[in-house]
Amino acid sequence: MELALLYSGGKDSSLAALLLDEFYDVRLVTAHFGVTDDFQHAREAAAELGFPFETVTLDESVAEDAVEQMVDDGFPRNGIQRVHDHALETVAALAVDAIADGSRRDDRVPTVSRAAAQSLEDRHSVDYIAPLSGFGRHAVDDLVAANLAVETGPSETVPKADYEGELRAILADRHGDDAVDEVFPDHEQTYVHGRR
Amino acid sequence: MELALLYSGGKDSSLAALLLDEFYDVRLVTAHFGVTDDFQHAREAAAELGFPFETVTLDESVAEDAVEQMVDDGFPRNGIQRVHDHALETVAALAVDAIADGSRRDDRVPTVSRAAAQSLEDRHSVDYIAPLSGFGRHAVDDLVAANLAVETGPSETVPKADYEGELRAILADRHGDDAVDEVFPDHEQTYVHGRR
Question: Per UniProt, which keywords does this protein have (chains A, B) (predicted)?
């Protein structure tokens, strides 16, 4: 069974790939807006893990709307959710049996409710799988430590290919660097360098 | 890492075992009240899958309370949830790093909310993992078909070791066979005979 996993090069989506590897033909798919070439980091991480890799291009107007929403809100949550929903719709249109992402039980954003999952599945005749949604933060940390070689640091310095890099770039371009600091709190990002 | 998986011999908990096998030292644990010897079916299914097996004994008063609740309700849902909660508490007291069950995204009962999961984890210093909670019914069916040899039939005839058999026995003993038919709707059960 062919499965497309939304992939950022970070620890969560990398661990999701390992969990599914035994049961599906997993390909790692990075969704991007064509704004930066951050997706190259995900390509390298995918190669280090030994998975096939491809990209899908998202609609840039979704990024622009998401950025305006983040500025209005003063926090990134709703904007990131909007982009993730759009990315899932885009990946669901690929010719695969199943799609997946790295969302965890304890994530606040992005989230995919049971109703949203079933709607995605029904409309696209595809299974939506969230392999980490039954794992809490501590279990994920243990599994990452045991199975992945990880680089950790602040969002600005660790190479990664989730939407945040492109959304930050659009935000800086439209509203200046201060707006980026206002919208995005400091937090740790991770980047994966292969299996342990 | 040592993991105890609540095990019935059915397809869901068997598939959960396969999903976790690569990442944990999985033992299959059947919780029972000592009312019937149905747990022997789970022991055989565990042996056919090649996992270590053990049992834990539950508090029979929980089964009795659950049965009375089912009779009062006219349906089994709340009683089964009560027994499952008690079983998780019991397994969480074992000397393991993690506990797990076979609950799925689309299950109506038993369910373990995020808050309940975190409470269980905090009180017992254990991870609670629901490996199938990110999989919908269709994805589970596909994975079962690809990975497990399964016998399917009505609840009364397929050997299985979930709580239902013992709860039916207590219910019949206290309220007669008609009460069993009133409380438990007809539904298909599954029993696993090894891997494919």
Answer: Hydrolase
Size of interface A-B (CB pairs under 8 A): 72
Q: d(Cα A195, Cα A127) in Å, to the nearest integer?
A: 27
Does this complex have an ipTM over 0.90?
yes
pLDDT score recorded for residue B67 = 96
- Give me the residue spans of the domains in chain B: 2-195
Please give the C-alpha separations between residue A139 and each of A23, A35, A42, A104, A117, in angstroms, as whole numbers.
21, 35, 24, 10, 23
Whether the Cβ atoms of residue B81 and residue B113 lie closer than 8 Å to each other: no
Question: What is the residue type of A70?
Answer: M
A57: pLDDT strictly greater than 90: yes
- A93-148 pLDDT, tens digit per residue, is 999 999 999 999 998 889 999 999 999 999 999 999 999 999 999 999 999 999 99
d(CA B53, CA B42): 8
Q: Which fold has domain A2-195?
A: Rossmann fold (3.40.50)
Residue recorded with tokens 């539950």: B58
SS (H, E, C) chain B: CEEEEECCCCHHHHHHHHHHHCCCEEEEEEEECCCCCCHHHHHHHHHHHCCCEEEEECCHHHHHHHHHHHHHHCCCHHHHHHHHHHHHHHHHCCCCCEEECCCCCCCCCCCCCHHHHHHHHHHHCCEEECCCCCCCHHHHHHHHHHHEEEEEEECCCCCCCCHHHHHHHHHHHHHCHHHHHHHCCCCEEEEEEEEC
A107 touches chain B (CB under 8 A): no
Question: Are A134 and B131 an interchain contact pair (Cβ–Cβ within 8 Å)?
Answer: yes
Tens digit of each residue's pLDDT (9 = 90 or more) over B106-162:
988 899 999 999 999 999 999 999 999 999 999 999 999 999 999 887 766 777 677
Name the DSSP class of A91.
H
pLDDT of residue A81: 95
In this prediction, residue A156 carries a pLDDT of 66
Strand, coil or helix: A122: helix
| Chain B residues inside the 8 Å CB shell of A18 | 22
Residue that has been written with the tokens 């969002």 in this structure? A155
